[in-house]
Each structure stands twice: as C-alpha cells, then as structure tokens.
Design brief:
Layout: E1 5-7, H1 26-32, E2 46-50, H2 57-66, E3 82-85, H3 96-112, E4 116-119, H4 123-129, H5 138-144, H6 147-153, H7 159-164, E5 170-173, E6 176-179, H8 185-188, H9 191-203, H10 222-225, H11 230-240, E7 244-247, E8 258-260, E9 265-267, E10 282-286, E11 289-294, E12 297-300
Parallel strand pairs: 2-3, 3-4, 6-7, 7-9
Antiparallel strand pairs: 1-5, 2-10, 5-6, 8-9, 10-11, 11-12
Length: 304
C-alpha cells in the first residue's frame, strides 16, 4: 500500500467569502491538532480526481461510473485506484445526504479492495458545518425530513457532521496536491500539517471561521482567473515540494477541464451537477501521467 500525506481545504457565482485573515497564529493551530510528520509519497498505478458534485446523486453516480469507480449499482469497482473528490459535495442540489452517504460507503468498499477514497472539504461543507445555509435547497431540507433533522445530521454528534469534521482540506499524492480552491504561498508556508490543523480547528469551532478567508485553500480562485498567477503558483508548489495542483471551485463553463501554467494547475470543476449543466469530467493519473476523462473518451494533457 502506498503512503499518502493529507492536508486539511467551489462553485461558481460564489457566496461572499470571509475577509482575508491575518496569518494564523502557529501556537493556536498547534494547540488544536498535534502536527504529524510529513512522509514521502509515491504515485499509485491509478489516481482519479473529480470536482464539485453539489448534492446531485444521479450525476455523481454517472461521473463515477464513467471514471470506472463504481458499477451500475453504485458499488466500488475501482480496485486499487485512489479516488480524490475535491470538495463541495453539498448545496445547490437536493441530495446532500445521499451524496455524502455514498462517499462514506465507497471509502470502506475501496479500502477492502486495496484502493482509497479521499474526500476533501470545500467551502460549502465548511459553510454548512458553521451554520451558513444560504445555498441549501428546500428539496435538500425536505430530504432530511425537517430543518431540525438536517441540522442534527450536520452537527458534531450527527453521522454526516462527525464524518465531515474529520475530512482534510488538501491532499497530496505523488508530486500533485489536490485542493478545493487553491493554495497560495502564504498558506503553503504553513506546510501540510499546519494547513491540516487549521482546517480542523475551524470546523471544530476551536478557531475562528475567519481564519479561512478569501485567499484560503477553500476559497482562492486566482490560479484559474489570473494569467499572472503562475509565478505565485510556482512559489506555492516549491514550498510544498510538489509539481502540480488540482483544484475545483471555479466552474469551467465550457464543461472541459482547464489546464494552466504549462500543466502545473488543472481546474476540474466542470459543472458536474445538473445545477451547472451536468458536464461529466474527471482527471486520471496513470503513474503520474495526467489524462482527462469525458463521456466521449480520454485525452492526454501536458505534464509539468
């Protein structure tokens, strides 16, 4: 089994992000979660990353099946594949409960088959855990039975809430980091354990939510919106000891995965949910070589 390092990190037309906070105090972060040592990581034979799902079970199952991760019954069929979902499982659509329960089930099924499912936090999960429900659909509330039942499910004592509070914000496999929004040099300097601790502290309520401001890993969009950000990306990747970053959050209205900075950044939020047009897409790494997957087939993309 390969080793994996986790870091603790979504949609277009975003809700207003919290204002940028000052650098998180190192002592406060360390007091929340003890830093874990960084470990070298190797590329598994196959890694698949899929972007924002936004509470749409049918399109989630469709893209998972397209990528060879589940069968027609929604059971894990990916064998030893490592599957990374880059956040925003909730909001917009009616199926937050079903999408989260599916990912929870696939974690166990993949582990039994020698694979792994890594589910990251997006800004919408952090909003839900903090009681910001602006983008929860009425159908989603109805699916839980009531607003009170949904609140309980997302609480620290609820099954969904307890599980989400243990999700990382960022993950690294091989030489590639996966994150919902993007990691700026300011956050990259915290290192993997520092970012992990920060996110855990925020979702547990032990650190202020403002610590994850608009330049934080769950909110930042600059690498896909600013042509001049490649130098900043290079600095962040150098701090992390990585060559490439895979991000969601910034919806590609073309329905195609974005490739920027000579392959150093891949934008994989293609609008998978029906809310954004049901554009199925995934990125696949074959021992580190990046390909994009569409219903029409696979296409090779530049590697940094």
């Amino acid at each position: 089994m390969f080793s994996l390092t986790l870091l603790l990190s979504c949609s277009s037309a975003p809700p207003p992000a919290p204002a940028q906070a000052a650098d998180p105090p190192a002592a406060s972060v360390a007091s929340v979660v003890e830093a874990v040592p960084e470990e070298p990581v190797q590329w598994p034979a196959r890694v698949v990353a899929i972007g924002d799902l936004h509470a749409d079970l049918p399109t989630t199952l469709s893209v998972l099946q397209m990528a060879g991760l589940v069968d027609a019954l929604g059971q894990w069929s990916g064998g030893e594949t490592v599957f990374v979902q880059t956040g925003d499982q909730t909001d917009r659509g009616p199926d937050s409960k079903e999408v989260l329960e599916l990912l929870m089930a696939l974690q166990g099924q993949a582990a039994a088959a020698g694979g792994q499912v890594i589910v990251l936090l997006g800004n919408h999960e952090v909003m839900n855990l903090g009681g910001d429900l602006r983008y929860v659909s009425p159908e989603d509330v109805q699916d839980f039975g009531s607003a009170q039942a949904r609140e309980q499910a997302f609480s620290a004592q609820g099954a969904l809430g307890a599980w989400l509070r243990e999700r990382p914000m960022v993950a690294q496999v091989g030489d590639t980091v996966f994150v919902h929004g993007g990691i700026t040099p300011r956050f990259a300097q915290m290192g993997l354990p520092g970012m992990n601790a920060l996110a855990k502290g925020v979702v547990s309520g032990q650190l202020p939510r403002g610590q994850l401001g608009d330049d934080s890993p769950i909110w930042y969009r600059g690498y896909l919106q600013d042509d001049g950000a490649c130098q900043e990306l290079e600095r962040a990747l150098e701090s992390l000891g990585a060559r490439r970053m895979v991000v969601g959050h910034t919806t590609q209205r073309t329905g195609r995965i974005a490739v920027g900075c000579e392959g150093r950044v891949l934008g994989i939020d293609t609008g998978i949910s029906s809310h954004y047009g049901a554009h199925a897409a995934a990125v696949e790494f074959r021992e580190g070589d990046a390909w994009v997957l569409y219903p029409s087939g696979a296409e090779d993309v530049p590697d940094p």
